[in-house]
Fold each of these.
Amino acid sequence: MKPAAGRYAPYNYFQLMEVSLRELLVEKGIVTEDAIAGAMAAMRARGPERGAAMVARAWTDPAYKARLLESGSRAAEELGFEVPGLRLIVVENTPATHNVIVCTLCSCYPRMLLGLPPEWYKSRPYRSRVVREPRKVLAEFGLELPARVQLRVHDSNADMRYMVLPMRPAGTEGWSEARLAELVTRDCLIGVAVPKIPKNPKTRKS
Amino acid sequence: MTVEKMGTVPLYNVGDRIRVRKAAPLGHIRTPFYIRGHAGVVERVCGAFPNPEELAQQRDGLPARPLYRVRFRQRDVWPGYRGNPADVIELEIFQHWIEA
């Protein structure tokens, strides 16, 4: 619950636990405030650009795409993204199949490549509904999936993490990797959206 | 449950039809309730991972348990599912949660 502007809101149970634990760890010299601040800054600095770069490379390099589908983790490291411990499975959208990712048990997400998950990804409505009425949920995101397309829902309920390889939009022939990567949003990598060419593209060189 | 099923040797292959155990033990279980008791097909063998039910109790979770990705038909899982009959849901299932 968000407090009204300027109003004091007492910590809730988990906030209080977090602050107490953090202060204890610092007090006992196990971690420093700087180390915590640094780790949080690094976490916030990671965004979906990494995943988008992998997709753009796959769109322009069929051999990389094959390696990406074979092992997402190795393909990430190939582009210089350190992903220790991440077991990434990349699932490919095709004209016949669409993929969408969820973690029904908590909020597992390939944070090392996509950054922090959006609030809705962690919410109970998304987690409980996208498994049992996924087409309705996708429609609410603005993605009307044709009935003939097979929908695969992936529950990252254990040790694997998932990322969607979307389809390259028509009309992007000859685009550079950097320009292609700009089309790949976080939502495309989760599977609740597909890349689209902006209606009023900025005039720019590819 | 047999001793073999508890072990580290994968007993199932891609394409095998399996059923998820229908049980409700206490503890930290990574097999969601909605899929317990349902039958699906092994999509891939992921390797072996420490048992999360043990890890949650501060133990080492070893020996590591084989983990599979299993594909289920949505209309088998949800009565009255609306969508393409070919729609699927895929989950990771540990070997000790597979009954056949």
Amino acid sequence: MIESAGPGFWAVARRPRWIGALLLALAIAAGFSALGQWQLARSVASAPVARADTETPIALTSLTTPGEAVTGAQLGRVVTVEGTLVDHDFVVLSNRLNAGSSGFWLVGHVLADGGGELAVALGWAPTRAQAVAAEDSAKIASPLIGRYLPSEAPDQPDVSKGVQSAASIPALINQWAQFDGSVYGGYVVASTPASGLEAIDSPAPSQEVSLNWLNIFYAAEWAIFAGFAIYLWYRLVKDVVEKEGEPVERRMDA
Amino acid sequence: MTAAPRPADVPRVRNVLRVFRVSAIVTGVFLLLLCAMMVLRYGFLVDIELNGPYGFLALTPRSRITGVDLSTAILIVHGWLYVVYLGCDFLLWRFVRFSFGRFLFFALGGIVPFLSFYFEFRIPAYVASRLEQAEARTPVGAAA
């Protein structure tokens, strides 16, 4: 470099080497932006289990096995069950809300084909008498179709004062007349109620979109990194400009 | 062929080096934890669970974790420590004015296990030699 001021920024930036570097920086920035997009897409996607299809019935035996706790992926799944209803082995639960009104559930005891026992909420009635009256004629379809839900926490004795309202598997098995020790961790709410009862309102699991702030944060980070890739190119070009313009360096190069 | 460090930047370099040394050690430790966690997560399909139902520290399949997932915590913390490490690397690169390739090489300290423990003493020594060279060279420029 002959001129004392050295080359200008754009004179250096226009050199093929630095145009190439700019293309590389842009490619890296584009890659980072794509990663940011991906993080953004993940931030609005709720947990994969919540997005799964819960409404197409599948066999309960293919979903879980007796003794297993209900996992997030199984929760609220519509299942089919082959089995027989145990006669005279019903429990009536109080304080069950159905479409806003408080009433009673009739819960039956089903022996699933191939082993395992299962609590099935057969239907809802506005009065205890109606729920109890449905016991004699209660039947289950073959296969029984219903929604699989996790066991509720048992009633607190001091709060409930003898009223049983929780659909709690541990509580129910204590009341069943016969029990061989192998029970499903959740219970099934029958889609079609037993005769004399109303269907229990059991909506599909919430598919709400929940923002994942960690992913949003990462998306912002990738945007910053993308900007930084461009900045690094600028900085490297600037270094060359400064080096070639600096008197000390020029003297040393010469 | 890089420019000499600016004299005005020399005091800043000492401060950055102090942060860098701590960051190199801490990032290096978390990188080793990260390696252990990756082996557990992808080799044995378990995460480290803190304060869960299986004890204070337990190895639990990811779907069953109810306590604090230490594996994910290690992942996130290492990410941030590495950002600090890279920040120090960047500042050293700016102040000491070594080559861009060297900047990228030093950046490997947060990715290659044990490398940052070597860099922790090697980089300050390298920086000191760069600064000495620059000092030795300054009178040439000043005399002109």
